[in-house]
Design goal:
This protein is of the alpha+beta class. 41% of the residues lie in helices and 18% in strands. The chain contains nine helices and twelve strands. A five-stranded mixed sheet has the order 3-2-1-5-8. Helix 3 packs antiparallel against helix 4 (89-116) and helix 7 (296-304) crosses helix 9 (322-334). The chain starts with a helix and ends with a helix. The mean pLDDT is 91. Bound molecules: dinuclear copper ion (CUA). Dinuclear copper ion (CUA) is lined by residues 132, 135, 171, 206, 208-210, 214, 217.
């Protein structure tokens, strides 16, 4: 009996170490929730810390009392029948009141945070419409006249008000370092607002199962200083022109191809709305919702057989010749 109890106790040790290493791992991971860079993220994180500390206190107190009782009052050889008792009113009141009190301590700041994170954004907030698609993200800046995809540029120090929508099924917008996830639901607009205080590239992804490529519905939030952000805005407002002869040929081919049915390139007849806006596709760092780096080789691979890279995605294999692909790559990479 004695040995059995000891073995059971030791069994927790590896679990504790695993938990500890897991927490250390989170600290360095790019998608951690425990080092937020927004006011919204910090609100939620302070709740998380409070609950974790209280839970650790409860765990240590209860397990400590349990282990103490197991060892202190264990059966010894020669012990007779123990004293028979029934109930202990004082103890029962104590262990009913203590958890109730702990729940109140958790509930009050939780309710306060729920209301604090549901308020209206300030009027000077930068508005962005976030639209979830199977399986990519569309970002529209209605006040700036900019539309982009999968890479959301935001400034530091200014409130950002996101409205979350969906073009098809339920998605969920989640950039862990910016705060909690919020769903993007068809025929409904959800809101989320925060102010970011540190420039950087923050990784995010869809957090609601939305079909075959849910796991590859990623995004990058590129947070810049206000001056850098303004530069980006100005660049996005210009309509890029293909400069090389190859890129110009590519532009003509693009305008004649099926591409224009689904994609928009500002200043051209291409005004399709099914796929990502390609007006400045050459300035993005990744393709296919963040799953491959945006290089001419990868773009060529994508145009040749998008289904091989991201099976099930809505871009059909167009059966383009290698020569045509080369022209299209020259054109698309020139759209900076
Ligand atoms: Cu979109 Cu999961």
């Amino acid at each position: 009996m004695n040995g059995g109890v000891r073995a059971a106790g030791w069994r927790f040790l590896p679990l504790l170490f695993l938990l500890l290493f897991g927490m250390i791992g989170c600290e360095q991971s790019p998608q951690t929730t425990i080092t937020p860079v927004t006011d919204f993220g910090r609100e939620i994180n302070s709740l998380y810390l409070l609950v974790t500390v209280l839970a650790a206190f409860v765990f240590i107190t209860v397990e400590g009392a349990l282990l103490y009782a197991v060892f202190r009052f264990r059966a010894r050889p020669g012990d007779g029948q123990p004293r028979q008792i029934h109930g202990n009113t004082r103890l029962e009141i104590a262990w009913t009141l203590a958890p109730a009190l702990i729940l109140v301590v958790i509930a009050v700041p939780t309710i306060r945070t729920i209301f604090a994170t549901q308020t209206e954004p300030p009027p000077n907030a930068l508005r962005v419409r976030v639209i979830g698609h199977q399986w990519w993200w569309e970002f529209q800046y209605p006040d700036l006249g900019i539309v982009t995809a999968n890479e959301l540029h935001l400034p530091t120090g200014r409130p950002v008000a996101l409205s979350l929508e969906s073009a098809d099924v339920i998605h969920s917008f989640w950039v862990p370092k910016l705060g909690g996830k919020r769903d993007a639901i068809p025929n409904r607009v959800n809101h989320l607002w925060f102010t970011i205080d540190e420039p950087g590239v923050y990784l995010g992804q869809c957090a609601e199962y939305c079909g075959t490529q849910h796991a590859n519905m990623r995004m990058r939030v590129i947070v810049q200083t206000p001056a850098e952000f303004e530069q980006w805005v100005q660049a996005q407002k210009t309509v890029p022109q293909p400069t090389t002869a190859e890129a110009q040929q590519g532009a003509q081919l693009f305008a004649r191809s099926a591409c224009v049915g689904c994609h928009t390139v500002a200043g051209t007849p291409a005004q399709g709305k099914q796929g990502p806006d390609l007006t400045h596709v050459g300035s993005r760092t990744t393709l296919a919702a963040g799953i491959i780096p945006n290089t001419p080789e990868n773009l060529a691979r994508w145009l040749k057989d998008p289904q091989a890279i991201k099976p099930g995605n809505k871009m059909p294999t167009l059966g383009l010749s290698d020569a045509d692909i080369q022209l299209l790559v020259a054109y698309l990479t020139s759209l900076k």
